[in-house]
Amino acid sequence: MLNAILSLNKKYNMNKIFLAGHNGMVGSSIIRGINQPILTREKRELNLLDQSAVEKFFSEEKPDQVIIAAARVGGIKANNEYRANFIYENLQIQNNLIHSSYKHNVKKLLFLGSSCVYPKLSAQPIREEFLLSSALEYTNEPYAIAKIAGIKMCESYYKQYGCNFISVMPTNLYGPNDNFNLNNAHVLPALLRKFHEAKINNLPEVEVWGTGKAKREFMHVDDMAEACLYVLRNVEAEDIYGQGISQINIGTGEDLTILELAEKISAVTEYKGSIKFLTDKPDGTPRKLLDVSRLKDKGWASKIKLNEGLTDTYNWYKENYINSIS
Question: What would be the CATH architecture of the domain defined by 2-177+218-253+289-303?
Answer without folding.
Answer: 3-Layer(aba) Sandwich (3.40)
